[in-house]
Write a structure and sequence with these properties.
Elements lengths: L3 E5 L6 H12 L2 E4 H14 L7 H7 L5 E6 L2 E6 L2 E2 L7 H10 L3 H17 L2 E5 L2 H5 L5 E6 L2 H14 L6 H17 L12 E4 L5 H13 L3
Parallel strand pairs: 1-6, 1-7, 2-6, 7-8
Antiparallel strand pairs: 3-4, 4-5
Length: about 220
């Protein structure tokens, strides 16, 4: 039987960074569900569809085929056979992903793929509703978060390191808006699963968070 680890939490909490490191330490497959939603979001943007147009998004999603493959242990996301891994980390794509992921048609498109991966492999999966909806039977569940100020600061530093000139206040505002959308959406809202361990990383290093989650997992093995 495969072992599944679910990490949920708000935007900018460091879920992907932490999940990748935990997966490497445990020898698990890391599944970045956010990348899947971002791939669909990229398609909607390319089609010129407004984030609030549910009808057009629901129709467009029928033309999308999202798959993943692993190259040297790294997840690569394919959108209609195009590798879009390097194209989906912009603020524009992230905001579209947050807005469009509220629609049932978008979520159901990816649910079967995510569950199939988890059924056949030892995986660590991160997102907004992994522990509550996608993998409710996961042996380990973590709700990873940090303060809005800390998450905004981390994103600001990340963008500066990429040579960009971001506005900290705008980043904070975007995070607050995404938090509200994610936690108030009708379909699979962001919330802590009843049996999840709450981890606030505001004052923790990456290594401390990784160690905390690895210890949780080893106790279940």
């Amino acid at each position: 039987m495969s072992m599944n680890i679910a990490i949920d939490g708000p935007a900018g909490a460091g879920k992907s960074t932490i999940a990748k490191k935990v997966a490497k330490e445990l020898g698990f497959i890391y599944v970045d569900t956010g990348a899947m939603y971002r791939s669909l979001a990229l398609y909607f943007i390319r089609q010129g569809i407004d984030k609030d147009d549910e009808d057009k998004i629901s129709e467009a999603v029928k033309d999308c085929n999202v798959t993943i493959k692993y190259v040297d242990g790294q997840q690569q996301v394919l959108l209609n056979d195009e590798n879009v891994t390097g194209l989906i980390r912009t603020e524009e794509v992230g905001n579209m992903a947050s807005a469009s992921s509220v629609y049932a048609s978008v979520r159901s498109k990816l649910l079967d793929l995510q569950r199939s991966l988890a059924a056949n492999n030892d995986v660590i999966m991160d997102g907004r509703d992994i522990g509550t909806q996608v993998l409710p039977e996961a042996q380990v569940k973590v709700f990873l978060t940090a303060s809005v100020d800390e998450r905004a600061s981390r994103r600001y530093k990340e963008l500066v390191e990429k040579g960009l000139n971001p506005e900290l206040n705008k980043i904070k505002k975007d995070i607050e808006e995404r938090d509200y959308r994610d936690s108030h959406r009708e379909n699979s809202p962001l919330r802590q699963a009843d049996d999840a361990t709450y981890v606030d990383s505001s004052d923790m290093s990456i290594d401390e968070v990784v160690s905390t989650i690895v210890d949780l997992c080893k106790n279940k093995m």
